[in-house]
Amino acid sequence: MEIKVLGTGCAKCKKLEQITENVVKEMGLDASIEKIEDIYKIMQFGVMQTPGLVVNGKVVLTGRLPKSDELRNLLTS
């Protein structure tokens, strides 16, 4: 599984990266997590509000922090 956390470095973006890493570890998922901070790369995903989350090339979340249960669902669907 390939996960990308999109964000320019704001507190919410850092928090999304942290909770994503925690949930991946808790669930024992085989996943790579990449943080993308370049605004031009972020815009290539069509994301205009950060933080954003991309799972296997698909944008699954933008503009807010998910609860842990929601994040688990996003990573397993």
TrEMBL record:
InterPro entries hit by this protein: Thioredoxin-like_fold (IPR012336), Thioredoxin-like_sf (IPR036249), THIRX-like_proc (IPR005243)
SUPFAM superfamilies, A to Z: Thioredoxin-like (SSF52833)
S-S pairs: 10-13
Residues in Thioredoxin-like fold domain copies: 1-75
Stored Gene3D superfamilies: Glutaredoxin
Active site: 10 (nucleophile), 13 (nucleophile)
Keywords: Disulfide bond, Redox-active center
NCBIfam families associated with the record: redox_disulf_2 (TIGR00412)
Identification of the protein by name: Thioredoxin family protein
Protein species of origin: Maribellus comscasis
